[in-house]
Amino acid sequence: MSERSHPKIIAVTGGARGIGRAIAAELAASGARVAIGDIDAPTAERTAAELKLPFAAKLDVAEPDSFRAFVDAVENELGPVGVLVNNAGIMPVGRFTEESDAITHRILDINVYGVMVGTKTVLPGMLARGRGHVVNIASLAGENPTPGMATYCASKQAVLNFTEAMRLEYRGTGVRFSAVLPTFTDTELIAGTRAPMGLLAQPGDVAVAVRRLVAKPRGRVTVTRTAAVLASFNRLTPRPLGEFVARRMGVHRTFVDEVDRDARRVYDDRLRP
Fold this sequence. Notes:
globular, Rossmann fold
C-alpha cells in the first residue's frame, strides 16, 4: 500500500523541549506517527499530550539498555521505526579549563555516543526491512570551531563524520543517513549569551528542514540559508581572514567572557550529572 496509507513511524530523541519538540510537532503535522524520548520523562509526557503524539517515554541516549527498551516500546506500540531523529544534545559553554571532567564526559556521552547508540539500535531492523532513515542533528559548530565551545564543537564534528561514514558504509542498502547543521538556534542552549542575532535560527526552521529531509533524503542540510551561504564563504576564505572577521563580530568573547551565568542557571543546573 502507499506511504500515504501507512504513515511513517518516527522516533525523536530529546523531544521534550526545544528543537526536538519543534521537530516532533512538524513531523506530526505532516502525518507521521511520532514517538518522543527524553531523559526528562514528565516533560516528554506533557509535550506528547500537548502535541497529541501517540507515544512518549524516558530515554537516556547514552545507555544502550535504555535505548533498546525505548525502541522496543515504540515498535510494540506503533510498529517498526522508519526514521530515527538523533536530536538529543547539550551545549555547556565557557573556557575549556573551567569545564569539569564530568561535563566533558557528559557532552561526549550524549552528543556523540548517544547518536552512535541510537543508530546501532535501529539499524539492524532497518537493514532487514531494506529501508530506513537516520537523521542526526549536528551543528555548524562542527565545521566552525568557536571559543568557549571546544568540547561541543568536537562532538558535532564527530557527528558529521560519523554520519558520512554510515552513509558510505551502508550505501545501496535502502537505509539513508542525513546530517542537519543548524546555526545558533533560539532555545535555552544559548540562554545568557549574545549569539550573533543575524545568524539566529528558530526551532521551527530546523523542524522544517528535518521534515523536508524525511520527505526527500539527502546527505546534509544547513539551517538557515543565510548561515549556509556564510559557511560556504568561510570555507573559501583564508583562515586568518575568517578569524579576523569572527573577532570583529565578537564571536571570540560571546561564549567565554560575555556569558550571563545567572540567565543560564536553570539550563546549567539541569546538565549536571
